[in-house]
Amino acid sequence: MICATVKQGVDCFFMGKNGCQFNGGSCHAIIEKCTGCQKAKQFSSGTYCLMFPEPSVKWRSGTCNMATHIVKAPAKETPKVNPLKASKRASR
After folding, report:
1. What is the DSSP string of 16-40?
2. Which of 24, 33, 65, 74 keeps 20 to 30 A from 46, CA to CA?
């Protein structure tokens, strides 16, 4: 349904016939770590995340999985080693 509390005009999963069903009755504003994310949008009542109603919870265990402003370092690849060839080299 379309939000009628803080994110007016945005489709919200927590919006029901009786108003916002999220804990506390409305979404929470973004935190400092969310600044610069493309998922954060400015509304008349403040800046809110379009994905999560309470962004601080997503940052408790590390980084937010939807953060667009954080660049993850690529995993370092180790060359594949054939175990048969490795054992032959070791026996020399």
Report:
1. ETTEE-STTSSPPBP-GGGTT-TTE
2. 65
- Name beta bridge partners: 33: none
Q: Indicate the pLDDT class of residue 11, thresholds 50, 70 and 90.
A: confident
DSSP string, the chain: -B--SSSTTSB-TTEETTEE-STTSSPPBP-GGGTT-TTEEEETTEEEESS-S-HHHHTTTSS-TT-SS-PPPPPPPPPP--HHHHHHHHH-
Could you identify the residue written with the tokens 């809110």? 48
Instruction: Residue 20: name the closest of 48, 41, 42, 57 by CA.
Output: 48
Task: Read off the pLDDT of residues 32-61 as tens digits, 9 standing for 90 and up.
Answer: 988 888 988 898 888 988 888 888 888 888
